[in-house]
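Memo to structure team: turn this sequence into structure tokens by end of day. - J.P.
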Amino acid sequence: MSASSQQVSQGANEQAASAEEVSSSMEQMASSIQQNTDNARQTEKIALQAVEDMKQGSNAVNQTVDSMQIIADKISIIGEIARQTNLLALNAAVEAARRRTRQRLCRSSG
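Reply from structure team:
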């Protein structure tokens, strides 16, 4: 009976050791799960901030494009004014040349 008791005692000790190992493994798993949860929350925060930054960046790009279009329109207007000014200057030069020619003709015929 003593041998039998020893076997039962040894079996109980082995089961207790196994239960302790299982309990320790469960604690490690729970800790890993908690760490993964914390990491997932942190990743979510980073992703949300990245989305917000991208929205702000997109708004800035859109404002820049709008400003560039306004500048391009103003440059076009300035270019048209410059073209018309050049035409007026050319016209004035032609008229001045005609006057000089008429004055010379009037002097030589007079």
